[in-house]
Amino acid sequence: MKASVRLRFGLVVIVALAAFALLAPWVAPHDPLEQDLLNTFQPPAWAENGNRDFLLGTDSLGRDILSRLVYGARAAITVAVVAAVLAGVLGAILGLLAGYLGGAVDAVVSRLVEIWMAFPPVLLSIVLAAVLGAGLHTVVIAIVVIDWTRFCRVVRAEVLVQKSRDYVASAVTIGLEPMRILRSEIVPNVVPLFVTLLSLEMGIAIVVEAILSFAGLSVANDTATWGSMIQEGRQYVRQAWWLMAMPMGCIIVAVLAMNALGDGLREVLDPLARSARR
Questions:
Q1: What are phi and psi of 64, to 5 degrees?
Q2: What does pTM read for this prediction?
Q3: Cα-based angle 234, 206, 82 (whole degrees, multiple of 5)
Q4: What are phi and psi of 71, to 5 degrees?
Q5: Which one, of 22, 20, 162, lies nearest residue 96 by Cα?
Q6: DSSP designation for 183
Q7: Which of 71, 118, 190, 278 makes an SS bond possible with 224, Cβ 3.0 to 4.6 Å?
Q8: What residue numbers bound the domain in which 100 lies?
């Protein structure tokens, strides 16, 4: 898939998800919490005995699957954006300082990263969610606490590469201040990699939110999320396959879109990638 195609695919899907999240009350055909016990386990409209009033079917309580998916996009997009940005900023700052300053700063940050990565990430996120209580803020904190190390390690390695370049040596020779060299010479060359990592982290954040929702450690039980829909659907997988398939499909498409957007932006922003295509 070409970079432009990946970029367009990622943008279209992410913009659509963001629009659904923001406009959920107007986009969703039904109230996601409205129960209709006379229409439980309705199959999708295109399937046999499907009901056009419920395009993607209904669940065990007669709630509209499409409406719940639309409202579930709110939690997914909120966590993806907020958690990824906070983890990225924290990790990137520490990685920049460790890679460029070196010495004691690099040693302290590197040891901290090694200690942090010794904890199993999924287990740590579940423990944090259990301690802090359910809620989107808990999911965001858990992701930031766990995933800042990914940004820190990669950004530090890239800074070390950029630090050895001739243009940095020239800037040092003419007497530019270290922070100015870092800000004006190194950071712009790290941005493409950071954007790629950020998009990947957004996809990971969606998956983590779904895992915690599945375990009942995300938002309240009466709030529609993709993870809670999967948790409910697994109980009726033989009777109503669409209960699991629909939210799982949303998660897969969202993660693929995040990855495609990151790849496309990296090739657009990275001068080396642009020159290679020429």
A1: -70, 125
A2: 0.86
A3: 145
A4: -70, -30
A5: 162
A6: I
A7: 71
A8: 3-277
Q: How many CA atoms lie within 13 A of 122 on its CB side?
A: 9
Give me the mean pLDDT over the 8-29 stretch: 90
Q: Cα–Cα distances in Å, from 35 out to 32, 62, 77, 225?
A: 8, 5, 25, 16
- pLDDT tens figures, 105-130: 889 998 988 888 887 777 777 777 77
The pair phi, psi for residue 58, each rounded to 5°, is -130, 165
Show the tokens assigned to 216. Answer: 């009942």
Q: Are 214 and 134 in contact (CB under 8 A)?
A: no
Indicate the DSSP class of residue 238: T
> Average pLDDT over the chain, rounded to whole?
84
Q: Max Cα separation, the chain?
A: 78
Q: Mean per-residue pLDDT for 151-162?
A: 89
Residue 166: how many other CB atoms lie within 10 Å: 7
Secondary structure letter of residue 176 according to DSSP: -
CATH number of residue 251's parent domain: 1.10.3720.10
Cα separation, 37 vs 56, whole angstroms: 17
Give the pLDDT score at 220.
Answer: 65
Q: Do 212 and 225 contact (CB within 8 A), yes or no? A: no
Interior angle at CA 84, CA 20 and CA 131, nearest 5: 100
In the chain, how many domains are there? 1
Residue with tokens 């279209």: 12
Mapped onto helix, strand or coil, the DSSP state of residue 220 is: coil
DSSP 35-89: --GGGTTPPPTTSTT--TTSTT-B-TT--BHHHHHHHHHHHHHHHHHHHHHHHHH
Question: Rounded to whole angstroms, how far apart are CA atoms 134 and 177?
Answer: 46
